[in-house]
Amino acid sequence: MTVTQLIKQDCANMNPDGSCNGPRYDDKLQPVPNVACERCMITDGKRCLYFEESILPGVEDVDIVWEYKKINSYVVASDRKCPECGVEIPKRKRYCENCTRKRRILSHRRHNAKRV
User: Fold this and answer.
1) Residue 58 carries which DSSP code?
2) Closest CA relative to residue 27, chosen from 8, 53, 57, 49
3) Where are the domains of the chain?
4) CB 25 within 8 A of CB 49
5) 92 Cβ contact list (under 8 Å, min separation 6)
6) Per-block mean pLDDT, blocks of 10 residues, the chain (116 long)
7) What pTM does this model have?
8) DSSP 73-112
């Protein structure tokens, strides 16, 4: 199954003629009022917030998720994992909170051991 097949099958905003009744968003995912769309945003190579929030989390096929990411060329923060324990981490963080705490304690212990 491809992303377009998934959209036709599961998207509540998709019409049989290929038009979309869903909310419109600009490139920064800010709502654009009263803009009708003749085609689905994803088929135009743009991100769709409705698809990302409603349909994509329920997809178990990893290939479909990666195909969508490749179409839109973006990386979701949840794709980043802590290198020590494998827990999902937010952007601009190197380790999860628990591993950061453990590493900080270990660093302080090493520093204090050198001082003695």
Assistant:
1) G
2) 49
3) 3-74, 77-116
4) yes
5) none
6) 84 82 71 71 80 84 81 63 88 92 96 91
7) 0.52
8) T---GGG-B-TTT--B--TT-SS-HHHHHHHHHHHHHHHH
